[in-house]
Amino acid sequence: QLTTLASELYKGAIVKASNTESGKLEGSLSTGVTVEGVDNFLIEASAGGNIGTQVAGTPFNIKITARNSVSATFTNYTGTNTISSASTMTSGAGPTAAFSSGVLSSHSVTLTRAGTYTLTTLSTTDPGTLGTSNSFVINPGAANSLTVFQQPSTTATSGIQFVQQPVIYIYDAYGNHATNDNSTQVIVAVA
Q1: What global pTM score does this model have?
Q2: Residue 94 burial by CB count (10 A; 0-12/13-18/19+): exposed, middle or buried?
Protein backbone atom coordinates (compact mmCIF):
# COMPACT_ATOMS: atom_id res chain seq x y z
CA GLN A 1 0.00 0.00 0.00
CA LEU A 2 1.49 3.34 -1.03
CA THR A 3 0.58 6.02 1.49
CA THR A 4 2.65 8.86 -0.03
CA LEU A 5 0.72 11.15 -2.35
CA ALA A 6 1.95 11.19 -5.94
CA SER A 7 2.60 14.94 -5.65
CA GLU A 8 5.07 14.21 -2.83
CA LEU A 9 7.16 11.91 -5.00
CA TYR A 10 10.14 13.38 -6.77
CA LYS A 11 12.77 12.18 -9.20
CA GLY A 12 15.40 10.23 -7.32
CA ALA A 13 13.21 9.45 -4.30
CA ILE A 14 13.50 5.90 -2.94
CA VAL A 15 10.14 4.25 -2.29
CA LYS A 16 9.75 1.13 -0.15
CA ALA A 17 6.49 -0.79 -0.24
CA SER A 18 4.96 -3.14 2.25
CA ASN A 19 1.92 -5.37 2.13
CA THR A 20 -0.34 -5.08 5.16
CA GLU A 21 -3.75 -6.43 5.88
CA SER A 22 -5.72 -5.67 9.03
CA GLY A 23 -2.68 -3.99 10.53
CA LYS A 24 -0.48 -7.09 10.19
CA LEU A 25 2.69 -6.92 8.11
CA GLU A 26 2.45 -9.70 5.52
CA GLY A 27 5.52 -8.87 3.48
CA SER A 28 7.95 -6.10 2.71
CA LEU A 29 10.43 -5.29 -0.01
CA SER A 30 13.94 -5.32 1.41
CA THR A 31 15.19 -2.79 -1.14
CA GLY A 32 13.74 0.45 -2.34
CA VAL A 33 12.67 1.43 -5.82
CA THR A 34 14.06 4.69 -7.17
CA VAL A 35 11.51 6.99 -8.77
CA GLU A 36 12.49 7.54 -12.40
CA GLY A 37 12.00 10.90 -14.10
CA VAL A 38 13.44 13.35 -16.58
CA ASP A 39 17.15 13.78 -15.90
CA ASN A 40 17.99 16.15 -18.79
CA PHE A 41 16.82 17.40 -22.18
CA LEU A 42 18.48 17.03 -25.57
CA ILE A 43 18.11 20.07 -27.87
CA GLU A 44 18.94 19.47 -31.52
CA ALA A 45 17.98 20.49 -35.05
CA SER A 46 14.42 19.46 -35.94
CA ALA A 47 15.76 16.75 -38.28
CA GLY A 48 18.16 15.54 -35.56
CA GLY A 49 21.83 16.27 -34.93
CA ASN A 50 23.58 19.52 -34.13
CA ILE A 51 22.01 22.90 -34.79
CA GLY A 52 23.88 24.45 -37.71
CA THR A 53 24.69 28.05 -38.63
CA GLN A 54 21.65 30.35 -38.58
CA VAL A 55 20.84 33.87 -39.84
CA ALA A 56 19.75 36.64 -37.45
CA GLY A 57 15.99 37.20 -37.58
CA THR A 58 15.26 34.01 -39.54
CA PRO A 59 13.15 31.44 -37.63
CA PHE A 60 14.45 27.87 -37.36
CA ASN A 61 13.00 24.71 -35.82
CA ILE A 62 14.46 22.64 -33.02
CA LYS A 63 13.56 19.29 -31.46
CA ILE A 64 13.70 18.64 -27.70
CA THR A 65 13.79 15.18 -26.15
CA ALA A 66 13.24 14.45 -22.45
CA ARG A 67 15.81 11.87 -21.29
CA ASN A 68 16.28 9.73 -18.21
CA SER A 69 19.55 9.19 -16.33
CA VAL A 70 20.92 6.84 -19.02
CA SER A 71 20.00 9.28 -21.86
CA ALA A 72 17.07 7.17 -23.12
CA THR A 73 13.87 9.00 -24.08
CA PHE A 74 11.64 9.38 -21.03
CA THR A 75 8.31 8.73 -22.74
CA ASN A 76 6.16 9.64 -19.71
CA TYR A 77 7.11 13.32 -19.97
CA THR A 78 4.19 15.38 -21.29
CA GLY A 79 5.06 18.73 -19.73
CA THR A 80 6.05 22.06 -21.24
CA ASN A 81 9.41 23.85 -21.20
CA THR A 82 10.84 27.33 -21.51
CA ILE A 83 13.72 28.13 -23.84
CA SER A 84 16.39 30.82 -23.45
CA SER A 85 19.59 32.00 -25.07
CA ALA A 86 22.20 34.70 -24.48
CA SER A 87 21.23 35.95 -27.95
CA THR A 88 18.09 38.07 -28.18
CA MET A 89 15.05 35.83 -28.75
CA THR A 90 12.16 37.47 -30.59
CA SER A 91 10.08 34.27 -30.68
CA GLY A 92 10.06 30.80 -29.18
CA ALA A 93 11.11 31.56 -25.61
CA GLY A 94 8.21 29.60 -24.18
CA PRO A 95 6.37 28.05 -22.71
CA THR A 96 6.48 25.44 -25.44
CA ALA A 97 3.67 23.16 -26.52
CA ALA A 98 3.25 19.97 -24.49
CA PHE A 99 5.66 17.12 -25.19
CA SER A 100 4.24 13.92 -26.66
CA SER A 101 5.81 10.67 -25.41
CA GLY A 102 8.82 12.64 -24.18
CA VAL A 103 9.47 14.52 -27.43
CA LEU A 104 8.70 18.01 -28.70
CA SER A 105 9.27 17.27 -32.37
CA SER A 106 9.30 20.83 -33.71
CA HIS A 107 9.52 24.21 -31.99
CA SER A 108 10.32 27.45 -33.83
CA VAL A 109 12.78 29.97 -32.39
CA THR A 110 14.10 33.27 -33.74
CA LEU A 111 17.37 34.79 -32.53
CA THR A 112 18.56 38.23 -33.60
CA ARG A 113 21.97 38.90 -32.04
CA ALA A 114 24.86 37.64 -34.19
CA GLY A 115 27.60 35.55 -32.60
CA THR A 116 28.11 32.05 -31.20
CA TYR A 117 25.37 30.87 -28.84
CA THR A 118 23.57 27.90 -27.32
CA LEU A 119 19.92 27.31 -26.42
CA THR A 120 18.89 26.19 -22.93
CA THR A 121 15.59 24.56 -22.02
CA LEU A 122 14.03 24.13 -18.58
CA SER A 123 11.02 22.10 -17.50
CA THR A 124 8.22 24.38 -16.27
CA THR A 125 7.38 21.85 -13.53
CA ASP A 126 10.97 21.06 -12.48
CA PRO A 127 13.20 24.06 -13.25
CA GLY A 128 16.23 22.11 -12.02
CA THR A 129 15.93 19.81 -15.03
CA LEU A 130 17.52 21.39 -18.08
CA GLY A 131 19.32 20.80 -21.33
CA THR A 132 21.71 22.85 -23.44
CA SER A 133 22.23 22.63 -27.20
CA ASN A 134 25.53 22.56 -29.04
CA SER A 135 27.17 25.92 -29.75
CA PHE A 136 26.14 27.36 -33.10
CA VAL A 137 26.78 30.54 -35.08
CA ILE A 138 24.21 33.21 -35.90
CA ASN A 139 25.34 35.32 -38.85
CA PRO A 140 24.09 38.89 -39.40
CA GLY A 141 21.04 39.26 -41.64
CA ALA A 142 20.77 41.21 -44.90
CA ALA A 143 22.21 44.73 -45.12
CA ASN A 144 19.79 47.30 -43.75
CA SER A 145 21.73 50.45 -42.86
CA LEU A 146 25.21 51.92 -42.92
CA THR A 147 27.32 54.22 -40.80
CA VAL A 148 30.39 56.23 -41.73
CA PHE A 149 32.88 54.92 -39.19
CA GLN A 150 35.85 56.96 -40.44
CA GLN A 151 35.60 60.14 -42.49
CA PRO A 152 38.03 60.64 -45.40
CA SER A 153 40.87 63.19 -45.29
CA THR A 154 39.64 66.78 -45.20
CA THR A 155 41.94 67.79 -48.02
CA ALA A 156 42.07 66.21 -51.43
CA THR A 157 44.06 66.51 -54.64
CA SER A 158 42.39 65.67 -57.92
CA GLY A 159 43.37 62.23 -59.21
CA ILE A 160 45.11 61.19 -55.95
CA GLN A 161 43.58 58.91 -53.34
CA PHE A 162 42.67 60.30 -49.95
CA VAL A 163 45.44 59.87 -47.42
CA GLN A 164 42.80 58.72 -44.93
CA GLN A 165 40.26 56.49 -46.68
CA PRO A 166 36.63 56.48 -45.53
CA VAL A 167 35.40 53.41 -43.63
CA ILE A 168 31.74 52.45 -43.90
CA TYR A 169 30.09 49.84 -41.65
CA ILE A 170 27.04 47.94 -42.83
CA TYR A 171 24.43 46.72 -40.30
CA ASP A 172 21.48 44.35 -40.52
CA ALA A 173 17.98 45.24 -39.24
CA TYR A 174 18.95 44.08 -35.72
CA GLY A 175 22.06 46.25 -35.36
CA ASN A 176 24.57 43.49 -36.09
CA HIS A 177 27.72 44.63 -37.88
CA ALA A 178 27.52 42.69 -41.16
CA THR A 179 31.11 41.45 -41.21
CA ASN A 180 30.01 38.58 -43.45
CA ASP A 181 28.77 40.90 -46.24
CA ASN A 182 31.28 41.12 -49.09
CA SER A 183 28.76 41.87 -51.82
CA THR A 184 26.90 45.07 -50.88
CA GLN A 185 28.34 47.98 -52.85
CA VAL A 186 28.33 51.49 -51.41
CA ILE A 187 28.73 54.42 -53.80
CA VAL A 188 29.98 57.66 -52.29
CA ALA A 189 29.66 60.99 -54.06
CA VAL A 190 31.17 64.36 -53.19
CA ALA A 191 28.48 66.91 -52.62
Answers
A1: 0.77
A2: middle
Cα pseudo-dihedral 83, 89, 94, 99, rounded to 10 = -60
Exposure pattern of 44-69 as b/e (b: 16+ CB <10 Å)? bbbeeeebeebbbbeebebbbbbbbe
Residue 109 and residue 118: Cα distance in Å, rounded? 12
pLDDT tens string 105-127: 999 999 999 999 999 999 998 88
- Tell me 70's DSSP state: T
DSSP-assigned beta bridge partners for residue 42: 65
- Letter for the amino acid at 18? S
Q: What DSSP string describes 18-50? A: EEEETTEEEEE-SS-EEPP---EEEEEETTSS-
Q: Which amino acid is at 91?
A: S
Looking at this protein, which amino acid is placed at residue 147?
T
